[in-house]
Design the sequence.
């Protein structure tokens, strides 16, 4: 009984954490919408931080602080959704190949092989030749070009979990694979999914920056990854301090938030399964 | 157990192999190390491989052409000031008011394999190039070639050509008949013997992957043995090259970025700078969406070029002249520019309204819809493009900016799928090249839709004007027309820099090397005594 009470308390505390983290994330994400400062080029090129430009200016005289705020929504939305998309596809294929009939398994795994062998950049260049995507397009492109590497990893974990007694028991009792997946398999591989999600988020941020150089997007689409990439030309001087560090810190904080959310979600699912219905 | 050990040994062996390979790769002989010997002059540039240094195999750009010119001589060369000077041709005489030329060749010129250079080689070259066109000059204007003796040749032209000496004969490399006569597909002839020239240096090794060349001095060169025993042409990023030059491993950094000049000077390196006369220009799709010249002019007035100089070039550039030719060119005319397009947003607005655009709350509309122009460029001009897009958006014109890979860029240009594009090419060299640069359909050219035919007519007229004063007057008219019609808007003319050691003294030529190449590496830099102008 005591055990149950403390878990329940933990759970309540977690909800507060959830709320706080999500509020913080939204604040970061949408702060840019409230900035009145336009992100304009100016002749104040590569100015160090000052009272006029809190975080200095970049190579074309744009204010770095304004850039950080304006980049937040793009970065967060693209990273969150495209990583989610990639992971969802990966989980689906991993589950299907783990529990499916041999033909399905072979089909999925050979498809994965194919996608893993063909460099994603070819796919991106091909897409670049045909479309000029908007925000949704970018999410789709990144999501669809990043799922293949996770399939085998998740599949291995799912295979291991599917041999456990609880899963076998549910199957004997007539539970469907979908039921097993939702109630047993996914919770069991949750920590793995969190870490893969984090990785996918990080990749998505940097990939968005790279898309502009493939001609896929307007290079002025502001993201933290793009700001970091722009800063790379200034590593030989002092300017990297105000060009590279601020977006890198923002990105690190963002990833930490994602990680924290993942951990909380993990604790909750564990608490839920141990508390029972 | 033993299986496990075998596997372990296998992995260990594989690891060892990988390590050995890495060490071997890292230990590859480096051309820069060769500079420890005092006879090798090491020249670096950041661009990749330029192809084999033979006329049909080198990359079709200025650097590929320049490197090849060390191996292949032309009939006419340049002196240390860039003026026309004898090369394989010792002297020449203009006959029939410029319709024919008598050319006398050097007695002592030899191919790198020891065979003498004769008039038959020259005649062969002209006939060979008429069936295998060379991208940098054409022999179309030559009506007949008569070999008079081993060292004398008579040429007749179809019509007068003001740039016959300073462009055609200067740009065309002379080919050895005994090497090229059997080559039906010279672009596939890529053995080292394809690089058998008569120039001051012969190619002795070429590493395509690394983009490295080692050139050996031609001791029997007709103008005397060149100054340096060997030239090593090496690909290296400028920052690394500066450090290598400090360690005395590199002699010339031919593409020193302007923002590294101060640093290089602080490191005790010599630096020479010059206006590149290789302006960045905003090309309009004059055959499509921007066929109305008032729109082109309006956009020109709406761009603050002073800001571009400050932001993009950090002040290391000047505002470009709008009549294509730049200050420094012998053909430039100060008086020929009625419009210098000083930044004037109000004038821009007037011109847009003249062309039927309406301003709605600061946003320009055409046919009831907001104006959205497509601006395309390559990575090199991405920063410039960002600033221009920003300036035009401030003016109320929406911009869709795309930075494209070269292939995609060429395709977009060829299909006319753009409104604005950034480009840069040389404004130097003989004005004969202007026709191609303005009216040609090359992806680098303006591809100007010359419906009136004015610009084409003026460019034809200057090509026939043998008198330099007359030619300059006609070219002044061209510059006026260019600035008025605005096939492209010349934005900025950046400075270029070259760093060099105390063993060599590179210099920029006022009108560029040969076809107008803006590098401080004319071949006269490497000769014991640079040729003198005149005949």
Sequence:
């Amino acid at each position: 009984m005591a055990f149950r009470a403390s878990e329940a308390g933990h759970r309540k505390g977690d909800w507060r954490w959830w709320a706080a983290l999500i509020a913080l994330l939204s604040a970061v994400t949408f702060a840019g919408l409230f900035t009145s400062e336009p992100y304009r080029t100016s002749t104040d090129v590569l100015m160090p931080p000052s009272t006029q430009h809190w975080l200095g200016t970049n190579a074309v005289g744009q204010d770095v602080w304004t850039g950080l705020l304006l980049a937040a929504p793009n970065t967060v939305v693209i990273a969150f959704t495209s990583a989610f998309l990639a992971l969802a596809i990966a989980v689906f294929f991993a589950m299907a190949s783990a529990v499916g009939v041999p033909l399905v398994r072979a089909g999925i795994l050979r498809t994965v092989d194919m996608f893993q062998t063909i460099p994603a950049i070819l796919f991106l260049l091909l897409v670049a030749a045909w479309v000029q995507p908007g925000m949704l397009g970018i999410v789709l492109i990144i999501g669809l070009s990043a799922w293949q590497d996770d399939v085998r990893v998740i599949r291995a974990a799912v295979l291991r979990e599917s041999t456990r007694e609880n899963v076998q028991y549910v199957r004997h009792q007539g539970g469907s694979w979908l039921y097993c997946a939702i109630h047993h398999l996914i919770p069991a591989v949750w920590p793995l999914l969190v870490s893969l999600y984090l990785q996918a988020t990080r990749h998505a941020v940097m990939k968005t920056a790279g898309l502009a150089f493939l001609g896929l997007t307007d290079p002025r689409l502001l993201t933290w990854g793009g700001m970091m990439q722009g800063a790379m030309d200034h590593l030989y001087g002092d300017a990297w301090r105000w060009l590279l560090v601020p977006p890198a810190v923002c990105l690190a904080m963002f990833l930490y938030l994602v990680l924290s959310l993942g951990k909380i979600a993990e604790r909750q699912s564990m608490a839920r399964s141990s508390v029972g219905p | 157990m033993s299986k496990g050990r075998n596997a372990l040994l296998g992995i260990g062996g594989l690891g060892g192999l990988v390590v050995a390979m890495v060490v071997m790769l890292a230990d590859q002989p480096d051309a820069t190390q060769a500079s420890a010997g005092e006879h090798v002059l090491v020249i670096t540039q950041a661009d990749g491989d330029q192809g084999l240094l033979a006329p049909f195999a080198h990359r079709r750009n200025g650097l590929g052409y320049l490197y090849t010119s060390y191996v292949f001589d032309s009939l006419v060369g340049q002196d240390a000031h860039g003026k026309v000077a004898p090369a394989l041709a010792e002297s020449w005489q203009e006959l029939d008011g410029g319709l024919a030329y008598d050319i006398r060749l050097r007695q002592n010129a030899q191919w790198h394999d020891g065979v003498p250079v004769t008039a038959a080689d020259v005649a062969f070259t002209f006939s060979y190039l008429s069936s295998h066109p060379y991208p940098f000059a054409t022999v179309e204007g030559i009506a007949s070639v008569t070999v008079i003796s081993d060292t004398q040749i008579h040429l007749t032209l179809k019509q007068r050509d003001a740039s016959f000496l300073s462009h055609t004969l200067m740009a065309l490399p002379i080919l050895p008949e005994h090497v090229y006569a059997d080559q039906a597909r010279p672009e596939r002839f890529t053995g080292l013997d394809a690089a058998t020239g008569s120039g001051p240096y012969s190619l002795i090794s070429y590493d395509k992957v690394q983009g490295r060349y080692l050139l050996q001095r031609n001791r029997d060169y007709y103008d005397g043995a060149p100054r340096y025993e060997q030239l090593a042409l090496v690909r290296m990023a400028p920052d690394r090259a500066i450090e290598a030059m400090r360690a005395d491993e590199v002699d010339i950094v031919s593409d020193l970025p302007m923002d590294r000049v101060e640093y290089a000077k602080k490191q005790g390196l010599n630096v020479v700078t010059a206006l590149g006369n290789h302006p960045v220009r905003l090309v309009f799709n004059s055959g499509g969406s921007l066929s109305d010249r008032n729109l082109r002019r309006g956009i020109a007035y709406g761009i603050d070029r002073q800001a571009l100089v400050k932001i993009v070039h950090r002040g290391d550039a000047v505002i470009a002249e709008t009549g294509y030719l730049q200050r420094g060119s012998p053909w430039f005319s100060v008086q020929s520019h009625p419009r210098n397009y000083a930044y004037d947003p109000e004038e821009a607005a007037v011109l847009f309204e003249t062309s039927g655009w309406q301003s709605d709350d600061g946003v320009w509309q055409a046919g009831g819809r907001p104006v959205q122009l497509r601006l395309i460029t390559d990575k090199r001009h991405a920063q410039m493009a960002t600033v221009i897009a920003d300036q035009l958006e401030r003016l109320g014109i929406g911009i869709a900016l795309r930075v494209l890979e070269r292939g995609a860029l060429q395709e977009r240009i060829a299909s006319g799928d753009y409104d604005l594009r950034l480009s840069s090419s040389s404004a130097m060299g003989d004005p004969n090249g202007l026709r191609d640069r303005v009216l040609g359909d090359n992806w680098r050219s303006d591809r100007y839709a010359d419906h009136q035919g004015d610009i084409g007519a003026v460019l034809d007229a200057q090509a026939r004007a043998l008198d330099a004063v007359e030619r300059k007057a006609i070219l002044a008219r061209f510059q006026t027309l260019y600035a008025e019609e605005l096939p492209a808007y010349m934005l900025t003319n950046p400075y270029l820099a070259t760093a060099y050691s105390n063993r060599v003294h590179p210099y920029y030529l006022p009108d560029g090397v040969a076809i107008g190449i803006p590098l401080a590496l004319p071949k006269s830099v490497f000769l014991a005594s640079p040729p003198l102008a005149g005949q």
DSSP finds twelve helices and no strands in chain A.
